[in-house]
Structure formats: C-alpha cells, structure tokens
Amino acid sequence: MPLTAAPGDMTVATFLSKADALRARGPLALMSSDYSLLKGEVTGAAQAYRARLRGEQAAGRPSSCPPAGRAPFNSDDVIGQMRTYPVGARGQTTVATAVADLFRNRYPCPAR
Hints:
Helix 2 (33-58) crosses helix 4 and helix 3 (75-82) packs across helix 4. Helices cover 54% and strands 0% of the residues. It has one domain. It starts with 11 loop residues before the first helix and ends in a 6-residue tail after the last helix. By secondary structure, the chain is mainly α.
C-alpha cells in the first residue's frame, strides 16, 4: 500500500517549481495532472486550517478572523505568499504553513 502525503504537506519549493512550469505551459497547463495536484494542495491546506481555526475560535483564541465562507484568495495571492519566504526556507516550509500565514496576514483579528 503506497503512502501518500496529506494535502498541504508539499514544500513551498516544490509547489513553486511546479507552478512556474505550469505557467510556462500557458493554457495547456489546465490539462496537466500537476494543475490538479497543486489545486488540491491549496484546497486541502485551506480546509485543514479552517478546521483548526474552528477549534481556536471555540477556545476564544483564533489565529485569524476571515469572513465566513470561502476566503477570496486566488492563485496569485497564494503564490505571492509563498514567494515571501526566503529561498533557503522554501524547502522546509509546507503549503499548509503558507496558507495559514496567508490567512493570518490577510485577516488579522482585531486587538482585544
């Protein structure tokens, strides 16, 4: 039985490498299996973050305060967040961490 990584476990370095290769393909990128893979990484990481956030909210200590429903992020937002990490750190930073940081940066909670 093969082991598979959880969505969001891909490193930022790997994600950016694949994303850059897809962008170079132009419209043909939509037919690539890597397109679905990258979309699944971000979607899975966002779902996991939202689940964790619900627990934080129940405890009264949310790490971010996004609007209800889907956060209005697009691929440029996610990739932009990933490019903020130093090149040397991208191999140790996961997509899940980048998505969580994007939520925290975009939707900080008001000071109490």
